[in-house]
Design a protein that fits this description.
By secondary structure, the chain is of the alpha/beta class. Helix content is 41%, strand content 17%. It has helices at 3-20, 36-46, 88-100, 115-123, 134-141; strands at residues 23-27, 50-54, 62-63, 66-67, 81-84, 105-108, 127-129. The strands form two sheets. It has a five-stranded parallel sheet, sandwiched between helices. Helix 3 (88-100) packs parallel to helix 4 (115-123). The longest helix is centred in the first third of the chain and has 18 residues, at 3-20.
């Protein structure tokens, strides 16, 4: 497959995930406004997504008006997309949790790459986006 075909396939997956997702679990959500996770969460909320912040240290607190849960398993509804703000190594466990709760997609943020986890997610039927940011992709793709 050519690099252009690979980019086209990635864009198709990005468009599908962002278009079909309504409920997003944001793992690694931070109450600190200077953090990328905070800025992206704010952007997604402004775009009309339901964003559930996941951070065991912040559990029970609110970030941008949304109550923080400690794990994906604590979210009492279907999850369309799990947006992962953890390092590449830690992302594997989050991917496994996303598979376990039946999420439809996992999205690993910029510089977060976990090929083994991505392979497990794809095998389980999840869409996978790695090393991308929805705050960049939505305007780039005109969504």
């Amino acid at each position: 497959m050519s690099e252009m075909e690979q980019l086209s396939n990635i864009d198709e997956t990005v468009i599908k995930v962002l278009s079909e997702s309504k409920v997003i679990a944001l793992v690694g959500a931070s109450p600190k406004s200077e953090r990328a996770s905070h800025r992206v969460m704010n952007y997604l909320l402004q775009r009309g997504y339901e964003v559930i912040p996941v951070n065991p240290v912040q559990k029970g607190n609110a970030i941008l008006g949304q109550t923080v849960v400690g794990s994906l398993a604590e979210i009492g509804k279907p999850i369309d997309m799990v947006d992962v703000f953890r390092n590449s190594e830690a992302a594997g466990a989050v991917i496994d949790e996303a598979i376990a709760v039946g999420a439809k997609a996992v999205w690993l943020q910029l510089d977060v790459i976990n090929e083994a986890g991505a392979a497990r997610a794809r095998k389980a039927g999840l869409d996978v986006v790695m090393d991308r940011c929805p705050k960049i992709e939505i305007p780039r793709l005109g969504l």
